[in-house]
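I am still getting used to backbone structure tokens and would like to learn alongside you. To get us started, please write out a protein record for me. Once you have written the record down, we can walk along the chain together.
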Amino acid sequence: MRHVHKLVAGELTRQQVVDIARGGTAVELDPDTERAVEATRRHIDALAAAEEPTYGVSTGFGALAVRHIPAERRTALQQSFVRSHAAGAGPAVEAEVVRSLMLLRLRTISTGHTGARLSTARALAAALNAGIVPVVHEHGSLGCSGDLAPLAAVALALTGEGHVLAPDGTTRPAADALADAGIEPVVLAEKEGLSLTNGTDGMLGMLVLALHDLAELLEIADLTAAMSVEALLGTDRVFATDLHALRPHPGQARSADRIHRLLAGSEIVASHRGPGCTRVQDAYSLRCAPQVHGSAADAVAFAETVADRELAAAIDNPVVLDDGRVESNGNFHGAPLAHALDYLAIPLADVASMAERRTDRMLDVARSHGLPAFLADDPGVDSGHMIAHYTQAGVVAELKRLAAPASVDSIPTSAMQEDHVSMGWAAARKLRRALDGLRTVLAVELLTAARALDLRAPLAPAPGTAAARDLLRTRVPGPGPDAHLAPQIAETEALLRSGAVNTTVQDHLGG
């Protein structure tokens, strides 16, 4: 049976956003929430009938707000609004991003502060549940006045215009998709053009999805770091709890604890422990992994706070207050989201940079402490992981470029009415690309470290790292003559994306 989430007065958790955007969980409005939406709409209807103009109800929009629109032209006003604002360009963004922004706009409507009609909210929920994914283009949002062009594309599809994505990636007319789902096209009433578009839902949706993915990838980074420490005959003493208590960052403490437990019981680590070991300190990329990984985890914790606050917000302009007042405001400005999105890209690039350094050490015969050059089966005839490292290095370089903030830029628009914008949509788009890059970087380190551990036989790795290596071996073969590496990297990325590696490691660590 398909799971259904009851949307109550805008309440939604980050995990529910992920489940609905990616997993197809259905959503419907709670009856009390529906009554609240209807009560708010009555305020808008009263303002629409009044002689005094109200922005967004009986006026034009943006720099055109000075014009009072007569009642007989307001349906045309709303349709013209979404048609003109659905002005995106470039390739279509991912279906999960579109589903997240549809859900989050529905969530805001359910707070009862937008003035949209209940019938419109139900139509949006029905489209989401039917798997209708409007075509939303890469370019069109400046992250201020909300994600206007992306949300307008969704609103336009609800009215039966524009195109939607079919499951096979092709496009079809929105009117056909609505008809197949038994959904009547929406005829927009006063205020609804703004209610459906004036939100930060695209930025927030991408932040929530990114937080989910980055949290998982940071756990993978702890694993690959542990495997590399082991493969390079490093020490586990630097991950001791009392050492990290001297610098009480929570992310650092958790990362050190995970690496320490992953190395527990390693024959490889034990083989060079004691007074006979002449190595005093490991390289920074091994010794300082918890400091870098932990800082990234703390950045995630900060961004989660931002996301949770946004999930408790009602973003619209104008907004309907509890006493029935309709007030203009600036809550649609995407700065809080843009800053968090940009912030995450920086530690993400640093985690990847450190992983690349560990990979390079395992391939360098001068620094790998007995491993063959490039982990090749027959160095000279075989090249081993030499070019896999090139790929990894190229991705790391790209991640450093993606770490440059988008939110420090602003281009005035709308005849200088919108004279400062957040560029939060751009920050979100580059963070999604950066997450894909980090996954590739960690996949190459996992491949390399697993091969290096195999080459340390007959010494056995720790049970935790061995479990991850053994899982990898169900998809990628162990050491041998050169093979086509691109499919192996792709298989490893898919394994990381599946969550199976995290589950295996977490089960081994005891939850």
Remarks:
- The chain has a mean pLDDT of 94.
